[in-house]
Amino acid sequence: MREKADHTELRPGPYRPRVSIFWWVRRRSYLLFVLRELSGVFVAWSVVFLLLVVGAVVRGPETYRRFLDVSATAGVLLVNAIALCFILLHAVTWLFMLSPRAVAVRLRGRRLPPAAIGAGNLVAWMLASALVVFLVLG
Amino acid sequence: MVDHIILRVTRYRPESEAEPTAREYEIPLRKEWSVLDGLNHIKDHLDGTLSYRWSCRMGVCGSCGVTVDGEPKLACATFLEGYAPGPVRVEPLSNFPVVRDLVVDIGDFMRKLPRVRPWLVRPEGEPQAEGEYLQLPAERAEYEQFSMCINCMLCYAACPVYGLDQEFIGPAAAALAQRYNLDSRDRGASARMDVLSAAEGIWACTFVGECSAVCPKGVDPAGAIQRYKLTAAMEALKSLLLPRGAR
């Protein structure tokens, strides 16, 4: 039995546009979003690097000195400089863009404006950084 | 002084075209004219076959969403003067199937919306004699912002997550769910949680934030979703750590 042809050259129906693989360069916010997603890789790298530092310290002064030498090479410095930029982007997103909108804090029955929560986060960030500086240098 | 402007309008006639094409129309540029006025001028005087949605002309009905020069906008609230000397690109909203010209199919949203129960949920069998559900102004302020949504679909058009994954419940449906979750009269938060906490619910949102940036009514769907993520995470933590009676 011959199958009935069920197609025509132009079948009336909705047009479904395809999403371009370069959709993320269409807007600045999309690009920032993709960079933020990518920042997760560098956050993971910084954790690994920190664990390597701790491992080198545990193994003794000689291992630690060798680790410092490797860390001072141009390649590792470049990766860490890029990682720092991405981690800052990650931190700024969380502290000043996401958490002020996600957290509803009430003071005397009134909801704090998002900017106040962002400012609170900034103060907390500064205090934590000061503590780290004190522990390292003090 | 420029007294005319060109609208480059996307046309799609499914009975004769395989994909959309752009067509230019020269229209008068008047100070008080919005993009919708321009489209109406085309329809009335230049080409009666142009199809687009509109109704109230005052940013309330949410039907005239289009893409103007790459940005999702309400045609009635976007003034042509800001785009002079032109040309101005007027295209259908992104991320939706195009039915004809500037008309898109929003059926996907209409199917998703009832799943989040966008109405006041009350326990079954409450006696009417108990009276109305009273609410203080401060309680109303909790959800008022999210009640401004007019379902115009600009947030869906701006959301790349929805563009890539049509299973995502989307910004407006999530914001409307929060509108009722935050309402002191509502008791349906736990019923909505199943839909909102699913993989294609709030967790699919990656906080691009463009939904809130394009919203013509100042609703913050991105904020609503992030706030609900925190609520859902706390609920999950409670169910893990606390005994059943203390949750």
Shape of chain B: elongated
Order of helices and strands of chain B: EEHEEEEEHHHHHHHH
What is the domain tally of chain B? Answer: 2
The domain count of chain A comes to 1
CATH architecture of the largest domain in chain B: Orthogonal Bundle
Number of strands of chain B: 7
Residues in helix, % of chain A: 55-70%
Cα separation of the termini of chain B: 68 Å
CATH fold annotation of the largest domain in chain B: Fumarate Reductase Iron-sulfur Protein, Chain B, domain 2
Quaternary state of this entry equals: heterodimer
How is the main sheet of chain A built? 2 strands, antiparallel
CATH topology of chain A: 3 helical TM bundles of succinate and fumarate reductases
Strands ordered across the widest β-sheet of chain A: 1-2
Percentage beta strand of chain A: under 5%
Explain what you see.
The complex is a heterodimer of chains A (138) and B (247). Chain A has 138 residues and is mainly alpha-helical. Chain A has one domain (23-137): 3 helical TM bundles of succinate and fumarate reductases (Up-down Bundle), CATH 1.20.1300.10. Helix content of chain A is 70%, strand content 3%. Chain A contains 4 helices and 2 strands; from the N terminus they run αααββα. A two-stranded antiparallel ribbon of chain A has the order 1-2. In chain A, helix 3 packs antiparallel against helix 4. The radius of gyration of chain A is 25 Å and the shape is flat. Chain B has 247 residues and is an alpha+beta fold. Chain B folds into 2 domains: 4-104, Roll (Ubiquitin-like (UB roll)); 107-246, Alpha-helical ferredoxin (Fumarate Reductase Iron-sulfur Protein, Chain B, domain 2), CATH 1.10.1060. In chain B, 33% of the residues lie in helices and 13% in strands. Chain B is built from 9 helices and 7 strands; from the N terminus they run E-E-H-E-E-E-E-E-H-H-H-H-H-H-H-H. Chain B has helices at 35-46, 107-112, 137-144, 154-158, 160-164, 171-181, 189-196, 210-214, 221-241, and strands spanning 4-11, 21-28, 65-68, 71-74, 88-91, 98-100, 103-104. In chain B, helix 6 packs across helix 9. Classes of the chains: A mainly alpha (138), B alpha+beta (247). Chain B: Residues 7-96 form the 2Fe-2S ferredoxin-type domain. Chain B: InterPro entries: 2Fe-2S_ferredoxin-like_sf (IPR036010), 2Fe-2S_ferredoxin-type (IPR001041), 2Fe2S_fd_BS (IPR006058), 4Fe4S_Fe-S-bd (IPR017896), 4Fe4S_Fe_S_CS (IPR017900), Beta-grasp_dom_sf (IPR012675), Helical_ferredxn (IPR009051), SDH/FRD_Iron-Sulfur (IPR050573). Chain B: Pathway: Carbohydrate metabolism; tricarboxylic acid cycle. Chain B: This is Fumarate reductase iron-sulfur subunit. Chain B: Its cofactor is [3Fe-4S] cluster; [2Fe-2S] cluster; [4Fe-4S] cluster.
